[in-house]
Amino acid sequence: MPLQNEQRLLALLYTSASARVEYARQPQEFCKRFHLSPQACAAMAAIPNSSIENYARSLIAKRLNEVTKLLPMTAQSMGEAFREAFYAYSKEVPTRGVDRHLRDATAFAKFLAARKESAKAEVSVLRLEAARVSARGSSPLVVCMLPPTEWITKELKLRKPEWVVLAYLRVGRYRRWSRMVIPLPNTSHSTETSKSLAGD
Amino acid sequence: MPALGVGFSFRPAYLADLFLRPHSMDVLEVIADHYLENIADRQEQLELLCAHYTLLPHSLNLSLGGADTLDRSYVRRLCRLVQRLRPPWFSDHLAFTRAGGLELGHLAPVPLTKEALDVVCQHIHEVQDRAETLFILENISTHVILPGAEMTEADFLAEVVERTACGLLLDLTNVYTNAMNHGFSADAYLQEYPLEHTMQIHIAGGEWSRGTLNDTHSAPVPKEVWRLLEYTLKRYRVPAIILERDENLPPFESIVEETEMARSLWGCHAASE
Ligand SMILES: [Fe+2]
User: Fold this and answer.
1) What was the pLDDT predicted at A186?
2) Considering only CB atoms, which chain B residues are within 8 Å of A11?
3) How far apart are CA B207 and CA B129, in angstroms?
4) CB pairs under 8 A between A and B
5) Quick one: which of A111, A199, B145, B256 has the most CB atoms within 10 Å?
6) Confidence of residue A198 (pLDDT cuts 50, 70, 90)
7) Cα B206 to ligand 1 centroid, rounded to whole Å
Protein backbone atom coordinates (compact mmCIF):
# COMPACT_ATOMS: atom_id res chain seq x y z
CA MET A 1 0.00 0.00 0.00
CA PRO A 2 2.39 2.78 -1.08
CA LEU A 3 -0.40 5.38 -1.04
CA GLN A 4 -1.27 4.58 2.56
CA ASN A 5 2.37 4.81 3.64
CA GLU A 6 2.93 8.03 1.69
CA GLN A 7 -0.12 9.62 3.25
CA ARG A 8 0.94 8.59 6.74
CA LEU A 9 4.32 10.17 6.17
CA LEU A 10 2.77 13.33 4.72
CA ALA A 11 0.25 13.60 7.56
CA LEU A 12 3.11 13.54 10.05
CA LEU A 13 5.08 16.15 8.10
CA TYR A 14 2.04 18.41 7.82
CA THR A 15 1.30 18.28 11.55
CA SER A 16 4.63 17.93 13.36
CA ALA A 17 7.37 20.55 13.35
CA SER A 18 9.94 18.14 14.80
CA ALA A 19 9.12 15.56 12.10
CA ARG A 20 9.77 18.22 9.45
CA VAL A 21 13.15 19.04 10.98
CA GLU A 22 14.06 15.35 11.13
CA TYR A 23 12.86 14.76 7.56
CA ALA A 24 14.88 17.73 6.28
CA ARG A 25 17.97 16.31 8.01
CA GLN A 26 17.66 12.67 6.93
CA PRO A 27 14.96 12.21 4.30
CA GLN A 28 16.00 8.67 3.29
CA GLU A 29 15.99 7.37 6.86
CA PHE A 30 12.68 9.06 7.52
CA CYS A 31 11.06 7.51 4.43
CA LYS A 32 12.38 4.07 5.38
CA ARG A 33 10.40 4.23 8.60
CA PHE A 34 7.25 4.42 6.50
CA HIS A 35 8.38 1.48 4.33
CA LEU A 36 8.64 3.62 1.20
CA SER A 37 10.60 2.20 -1.70
CA PRO A 38 13.75 4.06 -2.83
CA GLN A 39 11.76 5.31 -5.88
CA ALA A 40 8.95 6.58 -3.65
CA CYS A 41 11.55 8.23 -1.40
CA ALA A 42 13.10 9.96 -4.39
CA ALA A 43 9.64 11.12 -5.53
CA MET A 44 8.90 12.51 -2.06
CA ALA A 45 12.16 14.43 -2.17
CA ALA A 46 10.79 16.25 -5.21
CA ILE A 47 8.25 18.03 -2.97
CA PRO A 48 9.85 21.33 -1.95
CA ASN A 49 10.16 21.68 1.83
CA SER A 50 8.83 25.21 1.45
CA SER A 51 5.48 23.98 0.14
CA ILE A 52 5.16 21.52 3.04
CA GLU A 53 6.05 24.33 5.45
CA ASN A 54 3.48 26.61 3.80
CA TYR A 55 0.79 23.99 4.13
CA ALA A 56 1.73 23.22 7.75
CA ARG A 57 1.57 26.94 8.52
CA SER A 58 -1.84 27.27 6.91
CA LEU A 59 -3.14 24.37 9.03
CA ILE A 60 -1.95 26.09 12.21
CA ALA A 61 -3.31 29.47 11.12
CA LYS A 62 -6.69 27.85 10.55
CA ARG A 63 -6.65 26.29 14.01
CA LEU A 64 -5.49 29.52 15.65
CA ASN A 65 -8.31 31.39 13.97
CA GLU A 66 -10.94 28.96 15.30
CA VAL A 67 -9.44 28.85 18.79
CA THR A 68 -9.32 32.66 18.93
CA LYS A 69 -13.05 32.72 18.19
CA LEU A 70 -13.66 30.29 21.06
CA LEU A 71 -11.38 32.06 23.58
CA PRO A 72 -11.85 35.69 22.50
CA MET A 73 -11.30 37.41 25.84
CA THR A 74 -8.26 35.30 26.65
CA ALA A 75 -6.83 36.19 23.25
CA GLN A 76 -7.54 39.86 23.84
CA SER A 77 -6.08 39.88 27.34
CA MET A 78 -2.90 38.12 26.23
CA GLY A 79 -2.36 39.98 22.96
CA GLU A 80 0.56 38.70 20.87
CA ALA A 81 1.50 36.22 23.63
CA PHE A 82 -1.68 34.25 22.81
CA ARG A 83 -0.53 33.73 19.26
CA GLU A 84 2.99 32.79 20.29
CA ALA A 85 1.71 30.35 22.89
CA PHE A 86 -0.60 28.76 20.31
CA TYR A 87 2.31 28.20 17.93
CA ALA A 88 4.28 26.58 20.75
CA TYR A 89 1.30 24.39 21.69
CA SER A 90 0.22 23.39 18.18
CA LYS A 91 3.69 22.38 16.96
CA GLU A 92 3.21 18.84 18.19
CA VAL A 93 -0.46 18.56 19.12
CA PRO A 94 -2.69 17.52 16.23
CA THR A 95 -6.48 18.00 16.15
CA ARG A 96 -9.13 15.29 16.30
CA GLY A 97 -12.84 14.72 15.62
CA VAL A 98 -15.77 16.64 14.17
CA ASP A 99 -15.71 19.00 17.17
CA ARG A 100 -11.96 19.42 16.82
CA HIS A 101 -12.02 23.17 17.39
CA LEU A 102 -13.67 22.72 20.77
CA ARG A 103 -11.12 20.06 21.68
CA ASP A 104 -8.33 22.25 20.44
CA ALA A 105 -9.53 25.23 22.47
CA THR A 106 -9.94 23.07 25.58
CA ALA A 107 -6.49 21.54 25.21
CA PHE A 108 -4.94 24.93 24.52
CA ALA A 109 -6.67 26.43 27.57
CA LYS A 110 -5.12 23.64 29.68
CA PHE A 111 -1.75 24.33 28.09
CA LEU A 112 -2.07 28.02 28.97
CA ALA A 113 -3.27 27.31 32.50
CA ALA A 114 -0.16 25.20 33.08
CA ARG A 115 2.07 28.11 32.12
CA LYS A 116 3.11 30.08 35.16
CA GLU A 117 3.43 33.43 33.39
CA SER A 118 -0.34 33.90 33.07
CA ALA A 119 -1.40 36.85 35.22
CA LYS A 120 -4.22 36.45 37.74
CA ALA A 121 -6.77 38.32 35.64
CA GLU A 122 -5.89 36.19 32.63
CA VAL A 123 -6.39 33.02 34.63
CA SER A 124 -9.94 33.99 35.58
CA VAL A 125 -10.77 34.91 31.99
CA LEU A 126 -9.16 31.73 30.78
CA ARG A 127 -10.98 29.55 33.30
CA LEU A 128 -14.36 30.99 32.41
CA GLU A 129 -13.82 30.71 28.68
CA ALA A 130 -12.40 27.20 29.00
CA ALA A 131 -15.49 26.16 30.96
CA ARG A 132 -17.75 27.63 28.29
CA VAL A 133 -15.90 25.78 25.55
CA SER A 134 -15.98 22.49 27.47
CA ALA A 135 -19.70 22.96 28.03
CA ARG A 136 -20.19 23.06 24.26
CA GLY A 137 -18.38 19.76 23.90
CA SER A 138 -19.52 16.31 24.89
CA SER A 139 -18.89 16.21 28.66
CA PRO A 140 -22.10 15.99 30.71
CA LEU A 141 -20.79 18.17 33.55
CA VAL A 142 -18.30 21.02 33.60
CA VAL A 143 -17.27 22.64 36.88
CA CYS A 144 -14.78 25.40 37.54
CA MET A 145 -13.87 27.70 40.39
CA LEU A 146 -13.46 31.37 39.58
CA PRO A 147 -11.55 33.96 41.62
CA PRO A 148 -13.13 37.27 42.64
CA THR A 149 -11.78 39.44 39.84
CA GLU A 150 -13.48 42.52 38.51
CA TRP A 151 -13.91 40.93 35.11
CA ILE A 152 -15.64 37.81 36.45
CA THR A 153 -17.92 39.94 38.63
CA LYS A 154 -19.01 41.92 35.58
CA GLU A 155 -19.17 38.99 33.22
CA LEU A 156 -21.31 36.83 35.52
CA LYS A 157 -23.32 39.84 36.71
CA LEU A 158 -22.45 39.20 40.35
CA ARG A 159 -23.46 41.74 42.99
CA LYS A 160 -20.00 41.86 44.55
CA PRO A 161 -16.59 40.31 43.85
CA GLU A 162 -16.47 36.82 45.39
CA TRP A 163 -15.17 33.37 44.67
CA VAL A 164 -17.74 31.34 42.72
CA VAL A 165 -18.18 27.80 41.51
CA LEU A 166 -19.55 27.70 37.99
CA ALA A 167 -21.19 24.50 36.76
CA TYR A 168 -22.69 23.50 33.43
CA LEU A 169 -24.88 20.42 33.51
CA ARG A 170 -26.29 18.67 30.47
CA VAL A 171 -29.90 17.59 30.73
CA GLY A 172 -32.22 15.76 28.36
CA ARG A 173 -31.70 13.95 25.08
CA TYR A 174 -30.52 17.04 23.31
CA ARG A 175 -27.74 19.04 24.87
CA ARG A 176 -29.67 21.55 26.86
CA TRP A 177 -27.66 23.13 29.56
CA SER A 178 -28.28 24.36 33.03
CA ARG A 179 -25.77 26.89 34.25
CA MET A 180 -25.28 27.26 37.96
CA VAL A 181 -23.35 30.05 39.65
CA ILE A 182 -22.66 29.21 43.28
CA PRO A 183 -20.97 31.99 45.29
CA LEU A 184 -18.42 30.99 47.97
CA PRO A 185 -18.87 31.19 50.91
CA ASN A 186 -22.33 29.93 50.32
CA THR A 187 -24.41 33.02 50.97
CA SER A 188 -26.83 32.72 48.07
CA HIS A 189 -27.45 30.30 45.22
CA SER A 190 -28.62 31.04 41.72
CA THR A 191 -29.53 28.69 38.90
CA GLU A 192 -30.43 29.61 35.38
CA THR A 193 -31.25 27.44 32.43
CA SER A 194 -29.75 28.60 29.22
CA LYS A 195 -31.36 27.46 25.98
CA SER A 196 -28.33 28.53 24.08
CA LEU A 197 -24.76 28.95 25.05
CA ALA A 198 -24.19 31.37 22.22
CA GLY A 199 -24.99 34.41 24.31
CA ASP A 200 -23.55 32.94 27.46
CA MET B 1 -31.36 17.81 -12.93
CA PRO B 2 -33.41 20.85 -11.88
CA ALA B 3 -31.85 24.30 -11.93
CA LEU B 4 -31.68 25.35 -8.29
CA GLY B 5 -30.26 28.85 -8.69
CA VAL B 6 -27.89 30.83 -6.53
CA GLY B 7 -27.30 30.86 -2.80
CA PHE B 8 -24.60 30.98 -0.16
CA SER B 9 -22.93 28.63 2.22
CA PHE B 10 -25.03 29.27 5.32
CA ARG B 11 -23.36 30.70 8.42
CA PRO B 12 -25.38 30.97 11.67
CA ALA B 13 -24.37 34.63 12.03
CA TYR B 14 -26.65 35.40 9.08
CA LEU B 15 -29.74 33.55 10.30
CA ALA B 16 -31.76 36.62 11.30
CA ASP B 17 -30.77 38.58 8.18
CA LEU B 18 -31.64 35.65 5.98
CA PHE B 19 -35.17 35.47 7.33
CA LEU B 20 -35.58 39.21 6.97
CA ARG B 21 -34.81 38.74 3.27
CA PRO B 22 -35.91 35.15 2.66
CA HIS B 23 -36.13 35.53 -1.12
CA SER B 24 -32.55 36.70 -1.46
CA MET B 25 -31.37 33.08 -1.73
CA ASP B 26 -32.68 30.31 -3.99
CA VAL B 27 -30.78 27.55 -2.26
CA LEU B 28 -28.42 27.11 0.70
CA GLU B 29 -25.39 24.98 1.28
CA VAL B 30 -24.93 23.78 4.87
CA ILE B 31 -21.73 22.46 6.40
CA ALA B 32 -22.82 18.93 7.27
CA ASP B 33 -20.23 18.59 10.03
CA HIS B 34 -21.96 21.30 12.08
CA TYR B 35 -25.14 19.25 12.26
CA LEU B 36 -23.84 15.75 12.91
CA GLU B 37 -24.12 16.03 16.66
CA ASN B 38 -27.36 16.06 18.61
CA ILE B 39 -27.07 19.66 19.74
CA ALA B 40 -30.53 21.13 20.23
CA ASP B 41 -29.91 24.63 18.88
CA ARG B 42 -28.20 23.40 15.76
CA GLN B 43 -30.83 20.76 15.01
CA GLU B 44 -33.59 23.32 15.45
CA GLN B 45 -31.73 25.73 13.18
CA LEU B 46 -31.42 23.01 10.56
CA GLU B 47 -35.14 22.21 10.76
CA LEU B 48 -35.95 25.87 10.26
CA LEU B 49 -33.66 26.16 7.24
CA CYS B 50 -34.94 22.91 5.80
CA ALA B 51 -38.55 24.12 6.02
CA HIS B 52 -37.76 27.10 3.80
CA TYR B 53 -34.90 26.15 1.48
CA THR B 54 -33.40 23.35 -0.52
CA LEU B 55 -30.31 22.50 1.52
CA LEU B 56 -27.16 21.09 -0.02
CA PRO B 57 -25.08 19.28 2.65
CA HIS B 58 -21.35 19.84 2.23
CA SER B 59 -19.06 17.73 4.39
CA LEU B 60 -15.38 18.27 5.15
CA ASN B 61 -14.09 15.04 6.63
CA LEU B 62 -14.97 12.05 4.49
CA SER B 63 -11.30 11.81 3.51
CA LEU B 64 -12.31 10.16 0.24
CA GLY B 65 -8.76 10.21 -1.09
CA GLY B 66 -7.33 8.68 2.07
CA ALA B 67 -6.00 5.15 1.69
CA ASP B 68 -7.16 4.36 5.24
CA THR B 69 -10.71 2.99 5.53
CA LEU B 70 -13.54 5.49 5.84
CA ASP B 71 -14.56 6.57 9.33
CA ARG B 72 -17.68 4.43 9.74
CA SER B 73 -19.25 6.51 12.47
CA TYR B 74 -18.77 9.70 10.45
CA VAL B 75 -20.23 8.11 7.31
CA ARG B 76 -23.20 6.75 9.23
CA ARG B 77 -24.02 10.13 10.76
CA LEU B 78 -23.50 11.98 7.49
CA CYS B 79 -25.75 9.59 5.56
CA ARG B 80 -28.41 9.86 8.24
CA LEU B 81 -28.31 13.65 7.84
CA VAL B 82 -28.50 13.38 4.04
CA GLN B 83 -31.49 11.04 4.23
CA ARG B 84 -33.20 13.40 6.63
CA LEU B 85 -32.69 16.49 4.43
CA ARG B 86 -33.40 14.67 1.14
CA PRO B 87 -31.22 17.02 -0.93
CA PRO B 88 -30.73 16.61 -4.70
CA TRP B 89 -27.06 15.89 -3.92
CA PHE B 90 -24.41 16.20 -1.23
CA SER B 91 -20.70 16.95 -1.54
CA ASP B 92 -17.18 16.57 -0.19
CA HIS B 93 -13.67 16.99 -1.57
CA LEU B 94 -11.04 15.24 -3.61
CA ALA B 95 -8.71 15.13 -0.62
CA PHE B 96 -7.52 13.23 2.41
CA THR B 97 -7.97 14.68 5.87
CA ARG B 98 -6.47 11.94 8.03
CA ALA B 99 -3.88 9.19 7.80
CA GLY B 100 -2.37 6.79 10.30
CA GLY B 101 -4.52 8.13 13.13
CA LEU B 102 -3.48 11.75 12.51
CA GLU B 103 -6.13 14.31 11.63
CA LEU B 104 -4.99 17.25 9.56
CA GLY B 105 -7.96 19.46 10.31
CA HIS B 106 -8.04 20.45 6.65
CA LEU B 107 -7.99 19.12 3.11
CA ALA B 108 -4.76 17.71 1.72
CA PRO B 109 -4.26 16.80 -1.94
CA VAL B 110 -4.14 13.23 -3.24
CA PRO B 111 -1.72 12.17 -5.96
CA LEU B 112 -3.25 11.92 -9.43
CA THR B 113 -2.42 8.23 -9.76
CA LYS B 114 -4.36 5.10 -10.67
CA GLU B 115 -3.98 3.81 -7.13
CA ALA B 116 -5.54 6.98 -5.69
CA LEU B 117 -8.25 6.84 -8.35
CA ASP B 118 -9.23 3.32 -7.20
CA VAL B 119 -9.34 4.49 -3.58
CA VAL B 120 -11.49 7.54 -4.33
CA CYS B 121 -13.93 5.54 -6.49
CA GLN B 122 -14.25 2.79 -3.89
CA HIS B 123 -15.00 5.35 -1.17
CA ILE B 124 -17.51 7.28 -3.29
CA HIS B 125 -19.31 4.02 -4.10
CA GLU B 126 -19.55 3.24 -0.39
CA VAL B 127 -20.87 6.66 0.58
CA GLN B 128 -23.19 7.17 -2.36
CA ASP B 129 -24.76 3.73 -2.00
CA ARG B 130 -25.31 4.19 1.69
CA ALA B 131 -26.81 7.68 1.34
CA GLU B 132 -28.93 6.65 -1.68
CA THR B 133 -28.37 10.17 -2.96
CA LEU B 134 -26.19 11.62 -5.70
CA PHE B 135 -22.74 12.56 -4.44
CA ILE B 136 -20.68 15.35 -6.01
CA LEU B 137 -16.90 15.74 -5.72
CA GLU B 138 -15.12 19.08 -5.31
CA ASN B 139 -11.64 20.09 -6.51
CA ILE B 140 -9.46 21.65 -3.80
CA SER B 141 -6.76 24.30 -3.70
CA THR B 142 -3.38 23.06 -2.62
CA HIS B 143 0.00 24.35 -1.50
CA VAL B 144 1.65 21.03 -2.27
CA ILE B 145 1.92 19.43 -5.71
CA LEU B 146 2.45 15.72 -5.21
CA PRO B 147 4.86 13.94 -7.52
CA GLY B 148 4.09 10.91 -9.69
CA ALA B 149 0.94 12.19 -11.43
CA GLU B 150 -0.26 9.72 -14.05
CA MET B 151 -3.05 11.95 -15.36
CA THR B 152 -4.38 15.49 -15.16
CA GLU B 153 -6.87 16.46 -12.48
CA ALA B 154 -9.56 16.88 -15.15
CA ASP B 155 -8.93 13.34 -16.42
CA PHE B 156 -8.91 12.03 -12.86
CA LEU B 157 -12.29 13.65 -12.15
CA ALA B 158 -13.77 12.47 -15.45
CA GLU B 159 -12.72 8.92 -14.63
CA VAL B 160 -14.26 9.14 -11.15
CA VAL B 161 -17.53 10.29 -12.72
CA GLU B 162 -17.39 7.51 -15.28
CA ARG B 163 -16.80 4.80 -12.68
CA THR B 164 -19.10 5.97 -9.88
CA ALA B 165 -21.80 7.98 -11.68
CA CYS B 166 -21.21 10.77 -9.16
CA GLY B 167 -21.37 14.45 -10.11
CA LEU B 168 -18.91 17.30 -9.70
CA LEU B 169 -18.65 20.48 -7.68
CA LEU B 170 -16.43 22.94 -9.50
CA ASP B 171 -14.75 25.38 -7.12
CA LEU B 172 -13.67 28.19 -9.41
CA THR B 173 -11.74 29.97 -6.68
CA ASN B 174 -9.72 26.82 -6.05
CA VAL B 175 -8.94 26.59 -9.77
CA TYR B 176 -7.90 30.24 -9.79
CA THR B 177 -5.85 29.86 -6.57
CA ASN B 178 -3.96 26.84 -7.91
CA ALA B 179 -3.43 28.59 -11.24
CA MET B 180 -1.90 31.59 -9.44
CA ASN B 181 0.27 29.56 -7.05
CA HIS B 182 1.43 26.90 -9.46
CA GLY B 183 1.57 28.92 -12.65
CA PHE B 184 -0.93 27.32 -15.00
CA SER B 185 -3.84 28.69 -16.98
CA ALA B 186 -7.24 28.49 -15.28
CA ASP B 187 -8.91 28.74 -18.69
CA ALA B 188 -6.96 25.75 -19.97
CA TYR B 189 -7.95 23.78 -16.85
CA LEU B 190 -11.61 24.62 -17.45
CA GLN B 191 -11.40 23.61 -21.10
CA GLU B 192 -10.36 20.13 -20.00
CA TYR B 193 -12.72 19.90 -17.02
CA PRO B 194 -15.78 17.63 -17.51
CA LEU B 195 -18.28 20.49 -17.15
CA GLU B 196 -21.28 18.49 -18.32
CA HIS B 197 -21.21 16.54 -15.02
CA THR B 198 -21.01 19.66 -12.85
CA MET B 199 -23.98 20.13 -10.54
CA GLN B 200 -22.68 23.01 -8.50
CA ILE B 201 -20.13 25.82 -8.54
CA HIS B 202 -18.34 27.42 -5.58
CA ILE B 203 -17.07 30.98 -5.71
CA ALA B 204 -15.20 32.79 -2.92
CA GLY B 205 -12.36 35.22 -2.28
CA GLY B 206 -8.98 34.48 -0.73
CA GLU B 207 -6.00 36.48 0.49
CA TRP B 208 -2.38 36.83 -0.55
CA SER B 209 0.29 36.15 2.04
CA ARG B 210 4.07 35.82 1.45
CA GLY B 211 3.54 35.60 -2.30
CA THR B 212 0.98 32.81 -2.02
CA LEU B 213 -2.75 33.09 -2.61
CA ASN B 214 -4.66 31.37 0.19
CA ASP B 215 -8.19 30.07 -0.20
CA THR B 216 -9.41 31.69 3.00
CA HIS B 217 -13.02 32.47 2.01
CA SER B 218 -12.45 35.79 3.71
CA ALA B 219 -12.78 38.36 0.93
CA PRO B 220 -15.15 39.33 -1.87
CA VAL B 221 -14.98 37.22 -5.03
CA PRO B 222 -12.15 38.68 -7.15
CA LYS B 223 -12.85 39.86 -10.66
CA GLU B 224 -10.78 37.05 -12.18
CA VAL B 225 -13.12 34.50 -10.57
CA TRP B 226 -16.17 36.40 -11.86
CA ARG B 227 -14.66 36.13 -15.30
CA LEU B 228 -14.13 32.38 -14.86
CA LEU B 229 -17.75 32.05 -13.73
CA GLU B 230 -18.98 33.82 -16.82
CA TYR B 231 -16.69 31.74 -18.99
CA THR B 232 -17.98 28.53 -17.38
CA LEU B 233 -21.66 29.47 -17.55
CA LYS B 234 -21.34 30.33 -21.22
CA ARG B 235 -20.26 26.78 -21.85
CA TYR B 236 -22.62 24.99 -19.47
CA ARG B 237 -25.48 26.14 -17.27
CA VAL B 238 -24.55 24.56 -13.95
CA PRO B 239 -27.68 23.93 -11.80
CA ALA B 240 -26.46 25.70 -8.64
CA ILE B 241 -23.97 28.39 -7.66
CA ILE B 242 -22.91 28.82 -4.04
CA LEU B 243 -20.95 31.76 -2.61
CA GLU B 244 -18.62 30.72 0.22
CA ARG B 245 -17.68 33.15 2.97
CA ASP B 246 -16.24 31.93 6.29
CA GLU B 247 -14.11 34.76 7.66
CA ASN B 248 -14.27 38.57 7.90
CA LEU B 249 -18.02 38.20 7.59
CA PRO B 250 -19.38 41.34 5.91
CA PRO B 251 -22.92 42.71 6.36
CA PHE B 252 -25.49 40.37 4.83
CA GLU B 253 -26.13 43.04 2.20
CA SER B 254 -22.70 42.34 0.68
CA ILE B 255 -23.43 38.61 0.52
CA VAL B 256 -26.72 39.39 -1.22
CA GLU B 257 -24.97 41.71 -3.69
CA GLU B 258 -22.48 39.02 -4.65
CA THR B 259 -25.17 36.34 -5.04
CA GLU B 260 -27.21 38.78 -7.15
CA MET B 261 -24.21 39.31 -9.37
CA ALA B 262 -23.85 35.54 -9.74
CA ARG B 263 -27.58 35.23 -10.42
CA SER B 264 -27.45 37.81 -13.16
CA LEU B 265 -24.65 35.86 -14.90
CA TRP B 266 -26.51 32.61 -14.34
CA GLY B 267 -29.79 34.14 -15.57
CA CYS B 268 -28.11 35.72 -18.61
CA HIS B 269 -26.98 32.38 -19.73
CA ALA B 270 -30.41 30.78 -19.07
CA ALA B 271 -31.95 33.36 -21.38
CA SER B 272 -29.47 32.63 -24.13
CA GLU B 273 -30.14 28.87 -24.04
FE1 LIG C 1 -15.29 25.16 -2.11
Assistant:
1) 53
2) 96, 98-100, 102, 104, 108
3) 38
4) 102
5) B256
6) very low
7) 11
Q: How far is B241 from chain A (nearest CA, A)?
A: 25
Ordered structural domains, chain B, with CATH: 5-246 (3.20.20.150)
- Distance, in angstroms, between B176 CA and closest chain A CA? 18
Give the lowest-confidence range in A102-116, B81-95, B170-184: A102-116
pTM of the model: 0.87
Give per-residue pLDDT as tens, A57-68: 888 988 999 999
Q: Name the residue ranges covered by the structural domains of chain A.
A: 1-47, 48-199
Reported as a single tens digit per residue, the pLDDT across B78-124 is 999 999 999 999 999 999 999 998 889 899 999 999 999 999 999 99
B235 falls in which pLDDT band (50, 70, 90)? very high
Q: What is the residue type of B34?
A: H
Residue A67 CA, ligand 1 centroid: distance in Å? 22
- Residues A174, B43: C-beta atoms closer than 8 Å: yes
CA of B232 to the centre of ligand 1 (A): 16
A157 Cβ neighbours under 8 A, 6+ residues apart: none
Distance from the Cα of residue B72 to its chain's centroid? 22
Cα atoms in the Cβ-side hemisphere of radius 13 Å centred on A165: 12
pLDDT at B272: 47
